[in-house]
Amino acid sequence: MPDYRTPGVYINEIPHFPPSISQVETAIPAFIGYTEKSGDGLFIAKRITSLIEFEQIYGIAYPERMEAKLSDAALGSLPKIEVSIPSASPYLLYYQISMFYNNGGGPCYIIAVGNYDSTFNVDKTALLKGLEACKVVDEVALLAIPEIVNLIEDEDIKELNDAMLAQCNLLKDRFAILDVPEKNEGKISLVAEKFRKDFVGADNLKFGAAYTPKLETILNYNRAGDDLISINDQRIKKIKVNGLDDNIKLADIKILNYVDLYNLITTELHKISVSLYPSGAIVGVYSLVDSTRGVWKAPANVSLNDVVKPLIKIDNADQDDLNITPTGKSINAIRTFTGKGTLVWGARTLNGNDNEYRYISVRRFVNMVEESIAKAIQQFIFEPNDANTWSKIKSMCENFLLILWKQGALQGAKPEDAFAIRLGLNSTMSSLDILEGRLIMQVMMAVVRPAEFIIVSITLRMQES
Q1: Within its chain, how far is the Cα of 291 from the centroid?
Q2: How far apart (Å, rounded) are the C-alpha atoms in residues 300 and 103?
Q3: Quick check: 257 pLDDT over 90?
């Protein structure tokens, strides 16, 4: 009680509600890769909220050089056009961010590790340094490094993937999204076999998920103007106007007043779309599902926006091996279904044989609960390690889990079936624990799991005789 000495009226507010737990963010990703501009500097995490903000800070996509080849045509008719990219750049982070926002993404962190280079260099050391810079950003809950797949050496890809999973295991507050490299294998079974053998290790698999195959998107390459479009046609190269040399560009066609040909070429150029690995779109799906349903809902059976089709068609037989394998390294498929479009058709972590954490939603939900509770009970550090403190902590955690149960995150007809909290002397702590300043609490939860296999028994009743 305060020592009142002066006559007057004193007000003492008495709190009636216990301390509460706020749910931490679950879908704020960090993207690591190469950008046009350095923003606030290389290896510095910058929070953005839109693609426009990304463009303002980090620039746009790498300007690709394209070539248009003209086939022979009858007199008076236009030739057929074949457009190609002789040497595509490995810098695809901008397109991945576009897919992230087009599929429901929100706030995210960008860590630039370098700027575009004409040598098309993707450096393992730079990506590792960017990953290390991400470690100190507490808000990050998802990790994606889309340009890992463009590393030349298989060992470098494996090292980066393993480093992502190791960081997730160390901090236990984030989850890694991995792409499955396709290096001329063709068949999806060979792609999966090589990934499991050469591109990911055997540790920390419950903290990540892999997705395949590459996707044909509706995004167009950044041509950065007609100067980067060369015309490979001997008939046009013979024309010399205003000092033009043999390097005929698309703009020259317009100057030469070949308007129909110019329009034909530009039409074909717009048909060339960007093919991307799925990590950017998948992270967007995670954000969308978390915001609309909750982190306990599996990020699967969701349609992908801005996707024409997967580049490798996967059927039920193919997915049998992707989903369940003796190695436990499950790979989630992206498939096209008639009348439904392109869907994410898998919900497993890389540790697909783990009974506890085989599902992405379970692992990420537990991450959220652990971090939310850990941050909330920090206020009790140095408080008396007695029954009063234990009661406050237990009540706070029970209220938090009760809310989650009501939202459908925990299964059970009654709260006591859904969760239980143990905290106290001779329950979770001994006298020695208390003497040494340890407060130990056990939280048990019945987390909902996705209905991965729905089995329907059908009985046909025949006409009685």
Answers
A1: 15
A2: 13
A3: no
**Per-position DSSP letters for 263-332, written without gaps between them:** HHHHHHHHH-EEEE-THHHHHHHHHHHHHHT-TTS-S-S-BPTTEEEESS---HHHHHHHH--TT-B--E
Range of the domain at 108: 29-60+89-220+274-362
Select from 439, 396, 361, 316 the least CA-distant residue to 17.
Answer: 396
Judge if 187 and 296 occupy the same domain.
Answer: yes
Place of tokens 């394998």: 325
Cα separation of 174 and 171, whole Å?
A: 7
204 and 165 within one domain: yes
Query: Mind listing the pLDDT tens digit for each residue in 307-353?
Result: 999 999 999 988 988 988 888 899 999 999 988 999 999 999 999 88
Indicate the pTM of the whole model.
0.88
* pLDDT tens-place string over residues 79-127: 677 777 777 889 999 999 999 999 999 999 999 999 998 888 899 999 9
- Residue 336 CA to residue 312 CA, distance in Å, equals 10
Contact 375, 172 (CB under 8 A): no
The residue assigned the tokens 């609960």 is 369
Final residue before a domain boundary, out of 296, 330, 362: 362
Does residue 64 contact residue 221 with C-beta atoms inside 8 Å? yes
* Count: domains in the chain: 2
